[in-house]
Structures
1.
Amino acid sequence: MSILVTGGLGFIGSHTVVALIKEGYKVVIADNLSNSKIEVLNALENLTNETIPFYQIDVIDEDAVSRLFENQKFSGVIHFAGYKAVGESVNEPLKYYRNNLLSTITLANICQKKGVKKFIFSSSATVYGSNRVPFDETMQLLPTTNPYGETKAMCERILGDLVQANGDFEVALLRYFNPIGAHPSGGIGEAPNGIPNNLMPFITQVATGKLKELQVFGDDYPTPDGTGVRDYIHVMDLAEGHVAALENSKPGVHIYNLGTGKGTSVLEFIETFERVNKIKIPYKVVPRRVGDVAYSYADVSKAKRELNWTAKRNLEHMCRDAWNFEKLNSKD
Ligand code: UD1
């Protein structure tokens, strides 16, 4: 019996594949390569010394997913596949609703037909909207500012309704805070297409000289230094959180924040990156980015209590590993 990892060649998916194999799981990857590269499969096989069955399919393609479930037997599914660019989701909402909702519905439907009960879903802290920090799982969700965030909230509800109707389904909704960093080997990491939207990949590209300077989006937030505060989590900690969720899977729908519980401002982030990697990051402050909140950080007590999981790596590890990956993999 294997674990199906959709989007297993993406940033979080690939690190989770490594964590699963390390714990002795057999893994099958389904990925349509729309935002990932086949080279990641070779990197994963080198890192794990395993041959990993790979299916280049789109999870909204019901026939292809059905065939996959005929070929392989699964004890659980971790569903990462989805579009994730916030700005693009504002410009192309239907693309996001179609892909992110249909993939989840298709996969859950086939799991139901085939009796695969363990289902782990990639959600996001973005579903909290502009609630008060720390965000905890019992909070009433506020509307998010973009279709990407709405797809995450909607998929959570769809899976919740499925559990209402089928009490023996075991669903974990994992709300990620800000995953960054890379596998310490530098074999896999975050490799966004085009100019990065997120802070860490932008900074590593400023560090290589590919981008001239960082723009800090606003220094007039009601935070200690005026810049946005986020809960950055090492992607390997996040990956291990998925293994913990799988091992503690139980009937019902269970929501867990995966973060560190610690907030870091943009200026603190830059200072840490510069200190750890001994590189100057030129930056200038520009107006706020639309849709950003002042604060986002997790109450992590539920994951600790129920999954016996906490993040072990700190921001220094995240900065070191992200830069190591960028140095080894950037070409210009
Ligand atoms: C973003 C998404 C969120 C998604 C998450 C995935 C938005 C509005 N939110 O979160 O929905 O789940 O990525 O990782 O895009 N910053 C700069 N300059 C930059 C880039 C970022 O100052 O060039 C600041 C931001 O204002 C923010 C912090 O850095 O305060 C982190 O930004 P980012 O890495 O983009 O993550 P989020 O916006 O928190």
Note: The domain at 2-182+233-259 is CATH 3.40.50.720 (Rossmann fold).
2.
Amino acid sequence: MESQELMTEIMEQVTKRNPGEPLFHQAVQEVLESLEPAIEKHPEFVEAGILNRLVEPERQIIFRVPWVDDQGQVQVNRGFRVQFNSAIGPYKGGMRFHPSVNLGIIKFLGFEQILKNALTGLPIGGGKGGSDFDPKGKSNGEVMRFCQSFMTELYRHIGADVDVPAGDIGVGAREIGYLYGQYKRLTGLYNGVLTGKGLTYGGSLTRTEATGYGLVYFLEEMLKAKRQTLAGKTVVISGSGNVAIYAAEKVQQLGATVVAMSDSNGYIYDPRGIDLDTVKQTKEIERKRIRSCVSCHPSYQYFEDSQGIWSIKCDIALPCATQNELDEESALKLVANGVIAIAEGANMPSTPEAIKVFQDNNILYAPAKASNAGGVATSLLEMSQNSMRCNWTFDEVDAKLKDIMTSIYQQTSRAAWEYGCEGNLAKGANIAGFLKVANAMMAQGVV
Ligand code: NDP
């Protein structure tokens, strides 16, 4: 069978078997389209049904999460864990708490995680989980009771050598702490079953910063290949959560100016630069909306339209909020305003049409799978320290993170070149990650 025919057949099967899950379909479609050159070179993968197996999760767990709110009312949410692929190591991937979460979202994220984790060069498989619970506006007590109930089911499916969840949207240090406390109470184990833990109970220095810093290390490599640096560049960053804040911190350290940041309500803009301490205080500590930053900085302009951030003139755009946040229209605006590079901090933040605009206009484009892998890579470094019962310094972990991101850039650009799509890092990332997973699956037989 021709490789194109095979891809169409697999895509039809995925759509039929997973109805009503457009984000999962989008993620699979993007990967399959880019794997054609690899499949043509490796017919043995087709014979062994590697692609058919890759798109089907090994295990999908759905469970009820009942909890009691501050008014004494019983609330019920739904919990998910999708253990997608364990060919190269225990399942690893974050948990998302957001009202939009459903099985399709978790599957799309879990699928992306397989190839991302492979790119890190570390022994970790792909998984993802979460719930339609919304931590926003909840008291600490409510968040704790929800997390305890969530873990009361999840604990039987995870383990330090089985499946190691971490944070994602809506799951930060507070949630990981509550989840870990309950895991420990239920199992009596004190081990590396979760990553993103606090520094006083097994967390790793640099984990908080890792996804954002890693994104910028990847961006630096991409710019270096074109003999450019970050110094003096203007940068627009969507989101103001974990990834966005530490991407902003690193680009500022490297001499760039962050002129705008957003949340799901709107964005702040100041051509002289955004003060990151204020954003951290507002979003990380006070858990308020980004528009509150204006009260400390009257020069900031606030716009109640998070999409509008892409109409700002900038050299570099870092989408760090959520999936499909950057569409074709926004991409055309960025290009018209002279953007030179896009690096994705969020998972699948650019629509397929937006990616085409970047590629057609020769804009440097760093795909999430490669550019945001620093978080999961540092999670593995946290697991290593837990196993070894030791703590590395911030600089030690940061140096390892930088090496890993440089290696991901090199593998990605090399694969693109070897498979006839030089400069196309999206294809290069998919091919490089896929080859590792496919070879491991081949070696382990039909399982
Ligand atoms: P957080 O919950 O810390 O932050 C998410 C941020 O995005 C918040 O500022 C949120 O605003 C904002 N946001 C959400 N939806 C929109 C929208 N439609 N428009 C503008 N802003 C929006 O999550 P993370 O920073 O951890 O995750 C962000 C992205 O990075 C996700 O795609 C995640 O999957 C990905 N990622 C995260 C990793 C990690 O280590 N944390 C690792 C790899 C990828 P508000 O405050 O209003 O909700």
Note: The chain is about 50% helix and 15% strand.
